[in-house]
From TrEMBL, chain A:
Keywords: Cell membrane, Membrane, Transmembrane, Transmembrane helix. GO terms for cellular component: plasma membrane. This is Nucleoside ABC transporter membrane protein. It is found in: Cell membrane.
UniProtKB/TrEMBL annotation, chain B:
It comes from Aestuariispira insulae. Its main location: membrane. This is Nucleoside ABC transporter membrane protein. CDD domains: TM_PBP1_transp_TpRbsC_like. Pfam families: BPD_transp_2. It comes from the Bacteria.
Length: 365, 307
């Protein structure tokens, strides 16, 4: 029996929305078997318990929803930015580095005005963080438009550099003078911390700002000419150039927007749950955002939902580590698996699967 | 500088370069067949932990190398199925492979952090005792020699053999290759598996010889540097080899500067390989014609035999 792919000739709208769900279900099934394999027998828990601990427990716990939003905020912000570039075939995969640099430049404002109590501190931090992320993303933009250098490799190399810059900063110029030489900055003062918007939880103003960004992105991509240009360049670069869309301009635009949003996410994370910078500040949100952008179909609303799901894998990983003694790295495996399944099932959007016939055989010969 | 320092420097350059040679050679073949696999970093790190875990539990470094290669090839098989049969986007699938590989390696390596392993044995008995020339020519582990042989073999395969010609034809024009009867998918499958095994071998070299231990994320971007090397080499094996040795040289600069007691923060020295990669990419790709002439024309394009 031969399975054969047959072109649908058009994109299946229903499959476009169905495959992310299929991918999630397949990931859960594979995860079940992974847990059967990984579970420590002395813990006396079944794989069902493990799935529950991983995917349900974190949400129903008290303050679970708030924690989920706190985790999802940086991931969604980064993913919204990346999706703009991905639509135009501009592959910024260095959001992690732009996130880190944004956190550093924002923190410079905090430390420079450490004795100042003012409502202007937070907006200044946000501007500095956004500009920092933009500056870091401007490097691959400049090199791509000026020297035709691959932005994938450059933005990724700069991520390693950014993490080293952070390590240098918190060991050297930004170190807490009263911190007994520990590599960390001072704890942010009250004017530099994001206000909590849900009493008794860690949910901070950043989550509300994230929602605004999602809405703004939705409007731009569906209503604005720039959104249209981004889509056309991604789908048909030649047509776009005939229509007079400037490719270089869009490379700059998408990299600056994605870098800026990643930097913004970085300072929100620092001024929200982190409250200071340490060498382990980056948690891989910038990389997870790549998966979120794809899983969300590069659409702001889809990204919002995919971001919540991915935040859940972080919380679930931590939960499984505490309750079941599982390695935290299970999170990364789940995330990678989800993207694999999504890419695999995406074939159904353009092709339908046929069980082989004589026609199929002759085509394969 | 006395000869002992020179010899030590050369040896360090060679051990730093060897994993890059393996990974870059593998990716070079993959790209020559028209496939862009960005998952090198993921395959390398899974190769590194599988080789290390096998060597620690079995006591055999040789077995470790084999398992490391198989692990790399196994991951690349996933990539092959997704991109060749299910026509997934090469860039996205490669990224997925890297994210998955880093997570998987951490999961496998959970119990192996902190364990020690004897590094691969070095030197040919007798010959490596000759002063100066001995350690330089005969003082290496077997994989260093193999990396030189492999470079020659890949160069010979691509330019002198019929199979190599077919591989290049598939990479340059898959529709034409298909219409004269070559199985594009089968050839690409073999290239991808070779690339995976070589990335696994590069990873195995890191955890068995370069720094014989396991630490999460220990490949530290070398898979990405190998990808850059392929562009730097304009898809020519010996140039990739040369490039890998240049990067080995950058690694040694850190050690020399620290050795002279020059007061530069360690983090800035650690940035050197990444910054050097960017510089090298800029120098090569500013010449659009050079890249276009050498890059496989179908690199990263999807192929579906519909007729």
């Amino acid at each position: 029996m031969l399975l054969k792919l047959e072109s649908r000739g058009e994109i299946s709208r229903s499959m476009l929305y169905a495959t992310p769900l299929i991918a999630v279900v397949l990931t859960l099934i594979t995860g079940f078997f992974l847990f059967v394999f990984l579970l420590d027998p002395s813990k006396n828990a079944s794989a069902f318990d493990a799935l529950y601990t991983f995917f349900v427990d974190p949400v129903i716990a008290s303050g679970g929803i708030a924690e989920l939003l706190v985790k999802a905020t940086p991931i969604i912000l980064c993913a919204i930015g990346l999706s703009m570039g991905f639509r135009a075939n501009v592959w910024n995969i260095g959001a992690e580095g732009q996130f880190v640099i944004g956190a550093i430049t924002g923190t410079i404002v905090v430390l420079a005005f450490y004795d100042v109590e003012s409502v202007f501190i937070l907006p200044m931090m946000m501007v500095a963080g956004t500009l920092g992320g933009m500056a870091w993303a401007a490097i691959p933009a400049f090199l791509r438009t000026r020297f035709n250098t691959n932005e994938i490799l450059v933005s990724l190399m700069l991520t390693y550099v950014a993490v080293l810059v952070l390590s240098w900063a918190v060991h050297g110029p930004m170190i807490d003078p009263d911190g007994f030489n520990f590599p960390q900055t001072r704890l942010f003062h009250d004017s530099a911390l994001l206000p909590i918007i849900w009493e008794g939880t860690r949910l901070h103003l950043g989550a509300a700002l994230m929602l605004l960004v999602v809405l703004a992105a939705w409007l731009i991509i569906s209503r604005h000419l720039i959104g249209f240009q981004i889509r056309v360049i991604g789908m048909a670069p030649k047509a776009a150039s005939y229509a007079g869309f400037k490719e270089k301009k869009l490379i700059w635009l998408t990299l600056l927007v994605s870098g800026g949003l990643a930097g913004f996410a970085g300072i929100l994370e620092a001024a929200g749950p982190a409250e200071q910078l340490v060498p382990t500040f980056p948690q891989g949100y910038g990389f997870t955002a790549i998966i979120v952008a794809f899983l969300g179909r590069l659409h702001p609303v889809g990204i919002f939902m995919a971001g919540l799901l991915m935040a859940l894998t972080y919380l679930g990983g931590e939960n499984a580590q505490i309750m079941l003694g599982m390695p935290k790295s299970v999170t990364g495996v789940f995330q990678g698996m989800l993207l694999f399944y999504l890419l695999a099932t995406d074939v159904l959007i353009r092709y339908r699967v046929r069980i082989g016939s004589a026609v199929a055989k002759s085509a394969n010969a | 500088m006395d000869s002992a320092i020179v010899i030590a420097s050369v040896l360090t350059i060679m051990t730093a370069a060897t994993p890059l040679v393996f990974a870059a050679l593998g990716e070079l073949i993959v790209e020559k067949s028209g496939v862009l696999n960005l998952g090198v970093e993921g395959m390398m790190i899974v190769g590194a932990i599988c080789a290390f875990a096998t060597a620690v539990t079995s006591g055999s470094a040789f077995l470790g190398i084999i398992v490391g290669m198989l692990a790399g090839a196994g991951l690349s098989l996933l990539f092959a199925i997704l991109t060749q049969n299910l026509m997934a986007n090469h860039v996205a699938t490669g990224l997925a492979l890297t994210i998955f590989g880093i997570g998987l390696s951490a999961l496998i390596g959970d119990g192996f952090a902190g364990q020690k392993l004897d590094p691969l044995p070095k030197g040919i008995p007798g010959l490596s005792d000759i002063p100066v020339i001995g350690p330089l020519l005969f003082g290496h582990d077997i994989l260093v020699y193999f990396s030189i042989v492999a470079t020659g073999a890949v160069a010979w395969f691509l330019t002198k053999t019929r199979a190599g010609m077919i591989l290049r034809a598939v990479g340059d024009n898959h529709d034409a290759a298909h219409s004269i009867g070559y199985s594009v998918i089968k050839i690409r499958y073999m290239a991808i598996l070779f690339g995976g095994a070589m990335a696994g071998l590069g990873g195995a070299y890191i955890s068995l010889a370069y720094s014989p231990l396991w630490a999460e994320g220990m490949t530290a971007g070398r898979g990405w540097i190998a990808l850059a090397l392929v562009v730097f080499a304009t898809w020519k094996p010996w140039r990739a080899f040369l490039g890998a040795y240049l990067f080995g040289g950058v690694t040694i600069i850190q050690l020399i500067i620290q050795g002279y007691g020059i007061n530069i923060p360690a983090q800035f020295l650690s940035m050197l390989p990444y910054l050097a990669t960017i510089v090298v990419l800029v120098v090569i790709s500013r010449d659009k014609y050079l890249v276009k002439m050498n890059a496989p024309a179908c690199l990263g394009k999807l192929f579906h035999a519909s007729h």
